[in-house]
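Each record in this resource describes a single protein on a pair of labelled lines. With that in mind, the following record should read easily:

===
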Amino acid sequence: MKVIINAVSAKMGGAVTYLMNILHYLPPPESGHQFEVFLPHETAEKLKGLPQNVHLRPTQIGHARDWQRLWWEQVTLRRLLRREQADVLFSTANFGMWRCPVRQILLVRIPLYFSKPYLEMFFPLHPLKDQVPFRLRRWLCCQSVRWADIVMTPTHAMLDDLRRFIEVDSRKALVNHYGVAPLESSPSEAEGANAGSLPRNSSAVRLIYVSLYSEHKNLTTLLRAMPLLNKNRTGKFHLRTTVDPAWEGAAWTVQHQDDVALARQPDVAPCVEFIGPLNKEQTHRLYKEGDIFVFPPLCESFGHPMVEAMVHGLPIVASDTPVNREICGKAAVYFSPLNPDDLARQTCLLAADASLRQQLSARGQEQARTRFRWDTHVRRILEVVSLLGTPSAGGGRIAGRGADTLKERIAHHNG
């Protein structure tokens, strides 16, 4: 079977992390599958050692204007599907094809279009010139859900948010958790990493927050909590984060200037260090040097840094949201998302309780090993691909036993 993967928007952040991981877990040529991957040039340059049946097709269309990308995805890509005699189209970023000539799987992974907190807090603050294209993109995403044969989300919470705007038939809605790369260190080192311990050579508790800056990442609450953490306390707290409001890519947000000013306050600046961008090895080192991972976003589709923190044995303090609860479960303590006092309180309690830190560390590492595996994620996609690509699937809905089997597979995965 030939699968076309549309990943033209995988330019940075989680989209790149996702693509790089799934490509490395695709099956070898003897599986009978061929994969053609459309992606940005800068992402293609990072990909080495892929199976021989994975062919990269670099393009700059992901950097083009919205209407140019729309034309490419609805017209140019359609011609390519026919010319390549593809069996299945897998679109990895929210937008699919109208009347696609082959079966298509759509990954919906952007939370902002459907998140109630974001739409209530930040969206109204944006100028009309930004609100209009936002609404158009959300409309196109909803239409893409209608067009797709399978709609995949990384969490049940993301699917619930999507269903606030459009009905998604349970027979075609696949919840498929992402995976996480295992540590490349020895098992003993991986299991012993962090393990609830605090630094021996300093009185400061090292807090870590890894992500890209955006207004829904809720850096504001974390920055406001830092003076509370360090007020009249013997032990000090120090934050190292890649969530930098001065990052050039933050200019589109309505919050970044306020966060820059807040970060410069005399009771905040001494205890916060903005770092990055970091490569894979530097990010690994950052996790390894931390004591507690703090994750305050108001909305996420998955929250991949939390799972990375679990792998490294970091205890987690997370905002109390449906996605964070789904991913972390009992491997984290939670705080009210917009309450810096509650964030400071939960962080202090965790820092003072070595037994709790060890419990969270152990639970997180176990979950990362068993629940979040890239090989499992890719296998589920390929199972659906195989069913979609059967001869009975051409030119209409899958019929008969093929439809029953697909429904059973999706129900099994979602359960």
Notes: The two ends are 28 Å apart (CA to CA).
